[in-house]
Specification:
This protein has about 325 residues and is an alpha/beta fold. It contains 13 helices and eight strands. It is globular and about 55 Å long.
């Protein structure tokens, strides 16, 4: 952890949105390589960091052991959807800020053995928590209709049925290279085309295997419970499905519009705003994208918690 293996996206903008000060209590809901956590600690905050990936937690523990008798980094090896319960168990009822960086981390993408990408061949895994059904299990056991539905819903892939049919015909699939080749053949991909069509299918299967959109929904609801009045939320997303959920959630929670997404509960009519000062979509500038290409697809949305209670139905992260 002394040299972070990736560059945290929109770091300056996230820190400006959270405005950490010495003594503040912050949550890094997606610890990863600890980029946001490091900046929060440098500002004097205490950080409760969450990650379901055992590798991230192991690296964080090695780092936190160097902090002395009163460490300001508290690691939670849990899903960020569980942060309200985890913090209650730790005796923390309110926090000053929550940062979320949604989706797969650079560390996970860069390890072929984790199976998140097809740039190098590896086992067809994709599990962030390294337990439960893998991407191979899904591809080899789900029926054709379910595979097509997942690819269409989570990648907005118009050729989802053709891809699903090809996946079923090619079973068993065990590696990322095999899956990528199946998708390319199904869609008539030729080397040199600007975008590899397998990217969308990999995104969809990864989201499904890890329940990522449900995790995001629950974490947003938890932020209503955890943030004190005046507390700040900053969420970085990397594709339109995530960003749409965050945008609609914040609009509904601010009283600006009812929640219309199938992932979000409907806002109670006339419910008071629980978030205010919603930012516009914040994106990386040319200088950052030149250094960190991953930042090109990043969108930050931020908001400030009011003193009002959440609308009924969201208080307990109910769908």
């Amino acid at each position: 952890m002394n040299a972070a293996p990736h560059i945290p996206v929109l770091l300056a903008e996230v820190m400006a949105a959270l405005a950490p000060v010495p003594g503040s209590v912050m949550v890094d809901a997606t610890f990863g390589a600890g980029g946001y956590t490091r900046a929060l600690l440098d500002a004097g905050a205490t950080v409760h960091a969450f990650d379901r990936d055992p590798d991230a937690i192991a690296a964080g523990r090695a780092w936190s052991e160097t902090q002395g008798e009163t460490p300001r980094l508290i690691l939670h090896p849990r899903r960020f959807s569980e942060m309200a319960a985890a913090l209650e168990e730790a005796g923390v009822t309110q926090v000053d800020g929550i940062a979320m960086d949604i989706g797969v981390s650079s560390m996970q993408l860069d390890q072929p053995g984790r199976g998140f990408a097809f740039s190098a061949n590896g086992p067809l895994d994709m599990r962030m928590s390294q337990d439960g059904p893998s991407a191979a299990d899904f591809c080899n056991e789900a029926d054709e209709a379910e595979i097509a539905d997942v690819i269409y819903a989570y990648a907005e892939e118009r050729q989802s049925r053709r891809i699903a049919r090809a996946i079923v015909a090619a079973r068993p699939l065990t590696t990322t290279g095999e899956l990528a080749s199946v998708v390319r053949r199904a869609l008539g991909y030729h080397a040199g085309q600007p975008k590899d069509p397998a990217t969308r299918t990999f995104q969809a299967i990864r989201i499904h295997v890890n329940g990522e959109l449900d995790e995001l929904k629950a974490a947003l609801a938890a932020s209503e419970q955890l943030l004190r009045p005046g507390g700040r939320l900053a969420v970085v997303c990397f594709h339109s499905l995530e960003d749409r959920i965050v945008k609609q959630f914040l609009k509904a929670a601010s009283g600006a519009a009812p929640a219309t997404s199938r992932y979000m509960p409907s806002a109670a009519e006339g419910a008071p705003a629980v978030f205010e000062k919603l930012s516009k979509a914040i994106r990386a500038g040319e200088a950052e994208t030149a250094i960190n290409p991953r930042a090109r697809s990043a969108t930050l949305r931020a908001a400030t918690r009011t003193s009002h209670r959440p609308a009924p139905g969201r208080e307990r992260n109910e769908p």
